[in-house]
Amino acid sequence: MTTTHRVIDLRSDTVTKPTPAMRLAMAEAEVGDDVYGEDPTVLKLEQRVAALMGMEAAVYVPSGTMGNLIAVLSHCGRGDEMILGDRAHIFLYEQGGSAALGGVHPHTLPNQLDGTLDLMQVENAIRSENVHYPVTRLLALENTHNRCGGRTLTVEYVDAAGALAHDNGLKLHIDGARLWNAAVALGLPPGRLVAAADSVSVCFSKGLGAPVGSVVAGSHEFMRKARRMRKQVGGGMRQAGILAAACLVALDQMVDRLAEDHANARLLASGLALLPGIVIDPEAVETNILYFDVVQPGLTGAALSAGLAARGVLINPTAPQQLRAVTNYHIGAADIETVLGAVEDVLNTGYSGALSTGHLYR
Ligand SMILES: Cc1ncc(COP(=O)(O)O)c(C=O)c1O
Question: Ligand 1, from 12, 60, 89, 291: best to mutate by most atoms within 8 Å of Cβ?
Fold first, then answer.
């Protein structure tokens, strides 16, 4: 009798699958044509998210990438400049869409290890009036910060960044793909984390486990532009209530449990820190994302990843000697023990099989 081992997938929280409650809600969802603004389930989701974010309005979009795109293109015109981090998702993993599709000029500044930007550098990067310069219109931040190990931005920092932006006539957009994780980790309502922002994009298809979708929130005036932009980039959906229904279940049932993902990430980090050949600072793990380095001679990140895959554990390499693990709804504490055992096994026995392609996953 063949025994099938369950694959432990720590590649991302984007791999999460809808819960039975979501599937039921999807099947029973009230729907209408959302382009006409007639889908009651989408409208309900948009109103709830706007209220949660302390903002006037919101629009449902198919992805976080589109959420960020329509936000940037609603704040900036062609040739305008956006200041963001050199490790921001918008800069690294969205194909330069805001530049390619909207002609927005990105001005990157180095992200600090904690995901912030040095506000003095931001202030110095804001262009003055000069015919040689683009006009700086937007500051974009990310909370939690994916490439900076799921670190949270504090309210004090975001408030200060917002004040700096507004004092200089800029808008502040927050890529809040994992804002729910930041809110749970900081013990604050999500609306408080974006109080200083002009717009935010939040995802439901990551730690919250919904199959599809993000929501962008902001003022009525901003939303009038964003809704038009959504249509222009092909994001106007019809009976999208079927998808929005799962997002409403996620809001009711999947936010608080993110604390379990955070605890499992800390459990994994402290276990990895005990393994010779692995370097990680467990104190730096605040939410569900962790990066660790493999420093065992002759063992690369890709080889460790492939060795783990051969043992039913999926963790992606993100650099020659670095890997990223992301805990999620499908991973329990017992799985963490299995993962640690698999890592130790590869460290002890090495790996000489085919290397994983190792996409630099989001
Ligand atoms: C910080 C951040 N922003 C935006 C996105 C884009 O979301 P999506 O995959 O829904 O386009 C991701 C994806 O993982 C992300 O990590």
Answer: 89
